Amino acid sequence: MRRILFTLAALLAFGTATRAQDAHPAFWTVHGPRGTVYILSSLHLLPPDTDWHRSEIDSAMKSADSFVFEVPTGKSERAEETQFIYANGLLPAGETLSAKLDDDGRRDFHRALAMAGMDEVNLDQKRPWLAEIVLTVQAMYRRNYSPRHTPEGDANALASAYGRDIRYLDTTRQQLEFLQGADPSDGFDQFRAVLADFPNQAAREQRFVQVWAAGDVDTAATLIAQGLSDLPAELNRLDARNRDWTRQIEAMLSEDRRFFVAVGMAHLVGPKGVPALLRADGYTVEGP
Question: For the chain, which terminus, N or C, has the lower number of CB atoms within 10 Å?
């Protein structure tokens, strides 16, 4: 499961809900000395017919003064992303992914490319960490997943339409460095393992989305912990990021405002997820 599981659970998430009305993602309400923060477990890619709306979520969105998301996605941020990828996501001149693979690895590479509807030239110059992400997301797009009408997508649209305050927990560079991982200069062994396991990806995605749609935070925490069991550096970075987000949310709770926060599932579950950290710091948190 390796970095694909980690990356998608934390940033890209998954989507294959069985029926639209079955989506009931976990939702928390946090009370502070002055403010209130609503937190919704989000997936960043979903099938077009997924309906995660519930009355309490929609009421919280409508009442919110401020909306909070993981990272900005404006024109300047896209330019920064492009610059980062050129600096950190491409192999040195003359090196290619396919040349680093043995016969079995090249077979698995071409199989994964076919599943994603991509040509080798689209990935061959990318470093393994970036190739894993692009390959996985393109395969999901081919299965009709979309960023449209996701929790953060709809919340962002509402905030923009009504001129609400919008804030972010990370900068573009922070999020890209998070995805880049602890070993951006190598990672070829991991990439080979991802390619060999690629045919199992769709079933794994379905399991994750079923857990998210059921609001099952305990199973979600177990699956994420299992996926990170052999990646202690990335687990530590996830924990540190959750702690930083918790500090930011605690500062919001000192403001006389209502905040609506929509972020990826991996940051919200388990003993080191944001809701658990808020509870440990003495805040009243309603929800799972």
Answer: C
